[in-house]
């Protein structure tokens, strides 16, 4: 398992009909699978299960969302949308993936 794949991490889908969409990792689903949410198409009630080979992981972390998930606090779709907007419209408009990433 790749240690940089963790809840709250920013990812983009690289395969499938959702290719190019940004998500946050909600949870791990085994060795090679993750649950993804974006608060719009994929809400907390119906997260997207995706193979880790089909995502590109970015070095950005939604710290507030990650902390809530880790502590067991309730996270809602608005928190996810707000965090994604902040990460994508932050200091860099187009985040670079980690070197050597998938």
UniProtKB/TrEMBL annotation:
Gene Ontology, cellular component aspect: ribonucleoprotein complex; ribosome
Keyword Ribosomal protein set for record: yes
Source species of the chain: Desulfotomaculum copahuensis
Keyword line: Ribonucleoprotein, Ribosomal protein
Cited Gene3D superfamilies: 2.30.30.30
CDD domains: KOW_RPL14
Keyword Ligase applies: no
Protein name: RNA-binding protein
